[in-house]
Request: fold
Amino acid sequence: MSDPTSDPAETAVVEPGAESTYDGTDETTLLDRVQAPGGEGREILDAATREVIGRAPVHTVADLNDAIARAKAAQPGWERLGHQQRSAALELAADAVDANAEALARLLSREQGKPLNGPNARFEIGACSAWLRTAAATTLDPEVVVDDGETHAELIYRAVGVVGAIGPWNWPLMIGIWQIAPALRMGNAIVIKPSEHTPLSVLALLSVMNQVLPPDVLTGVSGDREGGARLASHPDVDKIMFTGSTATGRKIIEASAENLARLTLELGGNDAGIVLPGTDPKAIAQDLFWGAFINTGQTCAALKRLYVHDSVYDQVVSELALVAEQSPMGNGLDENNVLGPLQNPQQFDVVSRLVEDAKANGGRIVTGGAPASDLGELFYPITIVADVVDGVALVDEEQFGPALPIIRYSDVEDAIASANRLDLGLGASVWSSDRDEARKVAARIEAGTVWINSHGGVHPMIPFGGVKASGYGLEFGVEGLKAVAVPQVING
Reply:
């Protein structure tokens, strides 16, 4: 354990405008740098081929305690560097990510399953760099709240201290950066625990960034659920950021009661889309498709149930089926593919169960409907299920995979009520040729974000977060910086 009086970041001065001299490396070298030595650790399988990629370290609770102690010791010096120095360090980290983009993308593709091309692995690495640079460039100025000649009061934001981040397996690097970038920007040290399913790519990303960051301000701990529970309850962790299921989010809330850590929780979603009458099905088909099936449907804010007005229902179903037929699925390292496998057997089983239940309850299979065993163990084709209704499990449960239920409606009031009937409220979308009418409907939907004629797109300066059982707290932009800081009033 490090001496808590030491200040590892104190001497790490980064000059604004400095250039990174770190050269990129290949995938094998990157993997060797982070995996467990020899025959130690836990096997991680290629999502597409089920071959062993490498062995992930299995860190213990003692290792986690040590990482938190080192982060706590490093944090004050990192904070004292000031916003300008820390922003310069994030720019260098982004340079390092860019230099290693292809190696990171290939490792991510193998471990997570997403293809290199399309809105997938290379896209995810590019987003990591973009979010780092945006966090570096975003300003959070003191806010004068009273200045009446007698009283001058300003609201400022200071570092929380040590941030604990628990990441998911679906977008492990991009969501990791959503946690890392603002935390570091505001002067925190961060300890991140990646999902047990995708630890190697996350550890590789941290290794790349740590070539240019001061020691111990960014640490990864690869372990099991016990490690996540300890991170949430640790007395020296001041803030928890978690992206994952609502059930796990509730457990984190309970664990954090021990230390009263602040929380940002981005939990499950069952996002509804509503296609209004008069909409051109052909014009929206591509965006509808990718809103539902980006990352083969394994996205928290993907479109997961689609309500379509009777007047355009059949055309929307047909156009979506046409896009599905034109979107190749297979091994992610094949440059032609844009859809990959499910990441793990548990999620494959969820999708299979929900599709079979939909069939048994009158659902009409338009495309897919059965495992694509010819492609590999965890491949499930794009499955469009028409003629289902509210109450069917595929509609009411989050499928988190390549199966989309389409529900017919005739009264917009009924569609709005259906969209709001579940306890989740991460995102939603309204599709219409009349944008003003779409906005009126959007304002009545209970979701953290409602998109118009698109679904699931995020921007590093637009706040993002859920309502109801989809969590609380905002990420991105100025609000995201505030979320990893503590407010302080200077009065006088």
Q: What stands out?
A: Residues 107 and 279 are 41 Å apart (CA to CA). The chain has 16 helices and 20 strands.
